[in-house]
Amino acid sequence: MDFGRGQGLHVDRASISLSRTKAKVLVHLPALDDESTLDAEVRWSQPDAGGGFSVGLQFLRVRARETWALNEIVRGLTT
User: Fold this and answer.
1) How many Cβ atoms are within 10 Å of 59's Cβ, its own excluded?
2) Beta carbons within 8 Å of 12's beta carbon, 6+ residues apart
3) For 18-57, how does the pLDDT look when each residue is reduced to its tens digit (9 = 90+)?
4) How do the domains of the chain map onto residue ranges?
């Protein structure tokens, strides 16, 4: 799982593959005390070696606190 600056996520071995499929992503963001459920949409997919799919998800309607927490993760990866 890789977070990106563009408010999205790359997931390997996903069970969804169709572009524009909606998904809910449950994540624990270290900067927050509780888990967050983020709405997302599949933007691209390709079959992976394990029989599933590697997919790119774009987050939709992310609240300010989750945006801040996601940016903290990305900031930590680039410093």
Assistant:
1) 20
2) 1, 48, 50, 52, 54
3) 788 898 989 898 999 999 999 999 998 888 888 888 888 9
4) 2-78
